[in-house]
Every structure is written in structure tokens, then in C-alpha cells.
Amino acid sequence: MELVLVTPLLVLVLLVVVALGLLVEARMVVTDAAHQAARAASLARTEAAARTQAQRAASAALREAGAACTRPSVRLTTRGLAPGATVTARVSCTADLRDFTRTGLPGHVTLTGTAFSAVDSFRSSS
């Protein structure tokens, strides 16, 4: 008799644990996309090229990982791409919890990842 009462609660706890695990995985995917964006930007020669390459790298990383993100955005700080400078990439996107957790939960969650990459200190300035 007690097992009949506890089983729905155990199933609910299991679903919450699975949803939290999927959330952690999605945050890691977004952080990886930020790392790839920062690395791509740090290899660029101009700020315009850095922004374009960072956006492409982040979009490709999210697409290849199968992320359930909509409207990904990349904010980039390049500090002029001077040799030895640090490039910062912040990738954020919104995920619908219904698609994201596959459990029918209503609402949205914003996923954000930040990464840094150093510009080669021995590269030429031209």
C-alpha cells in the first residue's frame, strides 16, 4: 500500500533529476561554444573578422551539439586584438523548457557561457 503512494513521488523526483542533468549539459554546450568563439576571434587579424568568425564558430558549435537554443548571441571583447591581449566571448541563448527537457515543462531558460582566449603575443601586428 505504501509503495503505491510513494511511486508517483519517486517518478517525479527522477524526472526532476533528469531535467537538471539536461540543464547542466546544455550549459556545458554553451560554454564550449563560447570557448570556440573566443578562440576563433583570437586568431583573426581585424575586429570585424573576429566578430564574424566568433559568430560562425559559436553557431556551428551549437548546431553540431544539437543545442535547443533559439536566437544565440555572441558578445565579444577584443581589446584591439593586440599581441598578448585577451579576447572574451560571451555566448547566450534562450531554450524552451518543453523542447529542452522533453518533459513538457512550460517556460524558458537563458543559457550563458563565457570564455577567454589570449591573442598570440608573438604574432606580427600587420
UniProtKB/TrEMBL annotation:
Q: Which Pfam families match?
A: TadE
**Which superkingdom heads the taxonomic lineage of this protein's source?**
Bacteria
The TadE-like domain covers 2-39
**Name listed for the protein in its UniProt record:** Pilus assembly protein TadE
Organism this protein belongs to:
Streptomyces lycii
